[in-house]
Design goal:
By secondary structure, the chain is mainly beta. The chain contains 2 helices and 11 strands, in the order βββααββββββββ. The protein has an 8-stranded antiparallel beta barrel with strand order 4-5-6-7-8-9-10-11. A 3-stranded antiparallel β-sheet has the order 1-2-3. A hairpin with a 6-residue loop joins strand 8 and strand 9.
């Protein structure tokens, strides 16, 4: 993934919520360094998600895109359990824009995803359906794995931990 972006990353930054990103009191820590209150951390994700015009204004139509895959979302932070109902299809541009589709089986209504990869922190945040909130986030390197922990931040400051589970590509050739 680091070779896809022109920012000279040498190491991926992983966000494992509850492990290297955790809350103590009302403070969020990343690798034992305070990064803000819970409210501020959610606001940081919002700022990342809504900064697409600053990242690459008017370039989405001409951008080169890399598919990140299709993920099932599980709220209980478990890869197994009830059949998932929520799905994400994600892609990233060389400029760090995130795009794709959110699909809820209950409503059967797809919605567009729009967001950004922060080139300093490698945090990736996006919103759904043109709404400001909620904001979903994870590390861009997390999205290269079969399971990616994610956070969903709400306007009232609440945050939920979710798990994105990569779905196999039904058209991909079988591994031998």
């Amino acid at each position: 993934m680091s070779s896809w972006f022109p920012w000279g990353w040498t190491q991926p930054t992983s966000y494992n919520y509850g492990d290297n990103v955790y809350v103590q009191g009302d403070t969020v820590y990343y690798s034992e360094q305070a990064v803000g209150t819970q409210q501020e951390y959610g606001e940081q994700a919002f700022a990342i998600a809504t900064s697409a015009d600053e990242v690459a204004p008017d370039s989405a139509d001409n951008a080169e895109w890399l598919s990140l895959g299709v993920f099932a979302m599980t709220q209980d932070d478990q890869a197994s359990g009830p059949e998932p109902n929520l799905f994400l299809q994600l892609a990233v541009s060389k400029e760090g824009m995130i795009a794709g589709t959110y699909f809820n089986n209950s409503t059967e209504r797809p919605q567009d995803i729009a967001g950004v990869v922060d080139k300093q922190t490698q945090r990736t945040a996006w919103t759904v359906g043109g709404n400001d909130w909620p904001v979903m986030e994870t590390g861009v390197s997390n999205l290269t794995k079969d399971e990616a922990p994610a956070l969903i931040h709400f306007a009232d400051g609440q945050t939920q931990k979710w798990l994105l589970v990569r779905l196999e590509d039904p058209e991909a050739p079988a591994q031998q």
